[in-house]
Specification:
The complex is a heterodimer of chains A (296) and B (517).
Chain A (H helix, E strand, L loop, with lengths): L7 H22 L2 E2 L1 H4 L1 E8 L6 H9 L6 E5 L5 E6 L8 H13 L3 E9 L1 H29 L2 H24 L3 E2 L1 H31 L5 H33 L5 H28 L4 H10 L1
Parallel strand pairs in A: 1-6
Antiparallel strand pairs in A: 2-4, 2-5, 3-4
Helix pairs in contact in A: 1-6, 5-6, 5-7, 6-7, 6-9, 7-8, 7-9, 8-9
Chain B lengths: L5 H19 L15 E2 L1 H4 L1 E8 L2 H21 L4 E7 L2 E6 L4 H9 L8 E2 L4 E2 L1 E5 L4 E5 L1 H26 L5 E5 L3 E7 L5 H7 L5 E5 L10 E6 L5 E5 L4 E2 L3 E8 L6 E7 L1 H13 L5 E5 L2 E4 L11 E8 L1 H13 L6 E9 L1 H30 L1 H23 L3 E2 L1 H31 L3 H11 L1 H21 L2 H35 L8
Parallel strand pairs in B: 1-21, 12-18
Antiparallel strand pairs in B: 2-10, 2-20, 3-4, 4-8, 5-6, 7-8, 9-10, 11-14, 11-17, 12-13, 15-16, 16-19, 17-18
The chains are: A alpha+beta (296), B alpha+beta (517).
Chain lengths: 296, 517
């Protein structure tokens, strides 16, 4: 049996630091919002001319009066991602860029993807993203509150917040782009983190009924160990699937799968170290669940 | 728990075969399919254009208030009530009346049978709100009045957008209302929406009005620019003909001048009016105005009674074709702005499909190999179940003709990773039970029973997340939530019916074997 409970305090301190660091990053550095949430225009283009590179493209686009333009390589050697704010919401901007590029480099561009999100839509998307995440957290809270005693709910919710905040903090730190698919990833992380915690809690509760003489400090450790192989196997298979998306699923899914990979790792860790240590700190005992049983 | 009746086995087999059969339908070309259902590919996979249009209702509101202003004037004049300081600004009509008529005016507006302020019985609201400011009145659209106006302009816009897109003949367009002032257009297979964007960007409000240098024109005149942006002319506000009177419009080549023109045919009412107006005004210039700009202003040389005519204005063949199309499909009630556009080229779509499939296959293989190494025989059972699970998932998506997007494929891959969870929970539980229980069958039985709450909890939490995503997410993200959500149900079915069936057969045959799992 692995003594997970020996490190509760250390990992609690670590998690607290991680959360504080993430919050500081989120407040002061902020998130790198993509055009979905910030508005603007994105063009993914492929060039058949190998002489073209990021800086020549950038120099050329700078002359077109597009404001702040970002040009990046995207996956394949000759694929580029161009982003700019399109503040005036010019209608024929794509055509202008197309003809401007053709004039300078010759006609060898394929516009593979064009996205243009107006300021009103991006504000709405951001709002609905925030609402979606809030609702999902609230729904999980309600679910866990119905299913378990409040001490468990608190543990699960703390673990959940930890996972979401630290994942977002990591995105801020690494300056990774937040777009619609990241919101989907965060919601899935919420589901996954909960799922992981609930399975261990289920076992804690079962063991509380079974053993009246074992302290919660020991009991959580027994429960974690009993469910450990399941926790690991499921995390591994989920990670295998996600890694496969990350490496082979194309550029567009990279951000999504990365967020999910972070989420699964944090989710697995927090189920063990945050959720359970909350039970220990709240001194949950057989009485806690028996009281609840009587009520029902 | 481990016992399966023959009937149940047959039933499970039928369900599996049914969905596998349906899923297999996607493999065939359209003419060889068993029935007319398949998984639709989202715009991000098949390529295409997504446009969100917002209706700018300001002109409609102002026009309506303008009309109401003149209605108020004549309506109360007939009743012998003098309206003073009638004024329209900031979408509000203000006016004054003498004190003795105040009550009458309020009653005229707030009466349920009011003729100038329609009452919507269903919404318990008038079209306009009247506010008594003491020495004057202020009239503006009520909340419901505005909603009704927006709804009707949205209905019209939807119809006109549909007609314009149908005229171009794109493949299976999808045109939907969004909210009460937006129209969503999805155009599969279209990789350059330039032409559609320019066609939808025009209101196409066509009028025929006389050029009037006479300031005495009783309808008033306004100064309008020519299409070329340089010249200007004063034009009467009186509309002789509008685009509504057009039956047909076609691009033509004028055989004499070799110029591209748009020839049009008027309906009966239009033809009559046109004949009358032209016969009475020979020698005057008739301006043809599109969206507030003069296209041309030919001099009338003769009465035009045939009900047909032509517009020339230095068109290219393309612009004449587009103008005819716009005139045929009618004017939009209000200008449309494109507030969101997402276009994916067909190559990128195909690349995404390829990448998604490779990721699916590799992810699937990795999971299968890992599970087989970990559980041997039971790993094999899990893997077979996983394959059937995936096929059922595809079958259900086919049956409902769900739209598969790139995030949707990610959802399927994620389902593969998470689907083994339930089996793992069961097997790990059985292992524990076997430590204290010598009888294999009893241990398996209680393994299934005791793991049930954990499995349910785990799946409900993921399902809740998927449901929220479904309602809050848009486009591709919705595709993700659908595959994730449906995946949960197929997973539970395959774990509790298919995997358990295989397990029961194996365990019953090997009930005395030690270290079974």
């Amino acid at each position: 049996m692995i003594k997970f409970n020996r490190f509760y305090s250390q990992f609690n301190i670590l998690s607290s630091l991680l959360i504080i660091a993430s919050l500081i990053l989120l407040i002061f550095k902020g998130l790198n919002f993509g055009i979905d949430f910030k508005g603007g225009t994105l063009i993914e283009l492929r060039s058949s001319d190998t002489k073209i590179n990021v800086s020549s493209l950038r120099d050329n686009l700078k002359q077109m009066d597009l404001g702040d333009v970002s040009v990046k390589k995207f996956g394949n050697d000759q694929d580029y991602l161009i982003k700019f704010e399109n503040k005036d919401n010019k209608k024929n901007i794509i055509e202008e860029i197309r003809s401007g590029l053709d004039k300078s480099f010759g006609n060898n561009f394929d516009f593979r993807r064009v996205e243009n999100v107006g300021p009103k839509v991006s504000a709405e998307l951001l709002q609905s993203g925030i609402i979606a995440i809030s609702i999902s957290l609230a729904v999980m809270l309600i679910y866990i509150w119905i299913r378990f005693e409040w001490q468990f709910s608190l543990g699960a919710i703390l673990a959940l917040f930890h996972d979401v905040i630290v994942t977002l903090g990591l995105f801020s730190l690494l300056n990774l782009e937040i777009n619609l698919s990241i919101i989907a990833a965060v919601l899935t992380i919420v589901g996954y983190s909960m799922n992981d915690t609930v399975v261990i809690f289920d076992r804690v509760r079962e063991n509380l009924r079974k053993y009246s003489d074992i302290k919660i400090f020991e009991l959580t450790n027994i429960s974690i160990n009993e469910t450990l192989s399941r926790t690991l196997i499921t995390s591994i298979t989920t990670l295998l699937a996600l890694l496969s998306i990350f490496f082979f699923g194309g550029e567009i899914l990279k951000g999504f799968s990365l967020a999910m990979i972070f989420g699964v790792v944090f989710g697995t860790y927090s189920s063990i170290y945050i959720a359970n240590s909350v039970l220990v700190r709240l001194n949950v005992s057989q009485k806690t669940i028996l009281k609840e049983d009587e009520k029902n | 728990m481990l016992y399966f009746s023959k009937l149940r086995i047959i039933f499970i087999s039928i369900i599996c075969l049914f969905f596998i059969f349906i899923a297999s339908n996607n493999l065939f070309s359209p003419d060889k399919r068993f029935f007319d259902k398949k998984i639709n590919l989202g715009l991000d996979l098949q390529g295409g254009s997504y446009l969100l249009l917002e209706i700018d209702n300001t002109p409609v509101i102002e026009q309506k208030l303008q009309n109401t202003t003149s209605t108020i004037r004549t309506y109360f004049k007939d009743k012998g009530i003098r309206i003073g300081n009638l004024n329209l600004s900031n979408q509000k009509i203000t006016f004054t009346v003498e004190d003795q008529f105040k009550k009458n005016v309020i009653d005229e507006f707030n009466n349920e049978n009011s003729e100038i302020n329609p009452y919507y019985q269903r919404f318990k609201s008038h079209q306009f709100d009247l506010i008594d400011l003491g020495n004057s009145f202020e009239l503006s659209f009520s909340k419901q009045g505005l909603v009704n106006l927006k709804n009707s302009s949205q209905d019209q816009a939807l119809e006109i957008v549909r007609r314009r897109i149908d005229e171009i003949g794109t493949n299976e367009p999808n045109i939907l209302k969004r909210g009460n002032d937006r129209v969503l257009v999805e155009l599969p297979g279209l990789d350059d929406p330039k032409r559609i964007k320019s066609l939808l960007g025009k209101t196409a409000n066509l009028t025929f009005r006389f050029v009037s240098n006479d300031n005495q024109d009783s309808f008033g005149v306004e100064k309008l620019k020519h299409e070329n942006g340089l010249d200007e002319d004063f034009v009467s506000k009186r509309i002789i003909l509008s685009g509504d009177n057009l039956l047909d419009a076609q691009p033509r080549m004028d055989s004499q001048t070799n110029e591209t023109i748009v020839s049009f045919i008027l309906d009966r009412v239009g033809a009559k009016r046109f004949g009358k107006a032209t016969s009475a005004n020979i020698g005057r210039q008739l301006a043809i105005i599109l969206d507030g700009k003069i296209i041309s202003a030919p001099v009338i040389r003769d009465t035009i009674a045939s009900g047909s005519g032509q517009i020339s204005g230095g068109f290219t063949f393309q612009s004449a074709t587009d103008l005819s199309l716009l005139l045929r499909s009618g004017a939009l009630p209000a200008p449309l702005n494109i507030i969101e556009e997402r276009t994916v080229g067909p190559d990128l779509g195909q690349d995404s499909i390829d990448a998604g499939l490779i990721a699916l296959i590799i992810g699937f293989l990795l999971v299968i190999i890992f599970i087989f190494i970990k559980y041997k025989t039971f790993g094999l059972i899990t893997n077979v179940t996983l394959i059937i699970n995936l096929l059922i998932l595809l079958g259900i998506l086919t049956l409902f003709e769900a739209t598969l997007t790139l995030p949707g494929i990610a959802g399927i891959i994620l389902t593969v990773g998470m689907a083994v969870d339930a089996n793992v929970l069961i097997f790990e539980r059985i292992k524990e039970e076997l430590k204290n229980e010598k009888n294999n069958i009893i241990a398996f039985d209680s393994g299934y029973v005791k793991s049930r709450t954990a499995i349910l909890d785990a799946n409900i939490t993921t399902l809740l997340a998927a449901i929220i995503l479904f309602f809050m997410g848009s486009g591709p993200i919705k595709g993700f939530s659908v595959t994730l959500g449906v995946g949960i149900f197929t997973t539970l079915f395959s774990v509790y019916f298919i995997a358990r069936l295989f397990t029961s057969i194996y365990v019953t045959k090997n009930k005395d074997k030690e270290a079974l799992i």
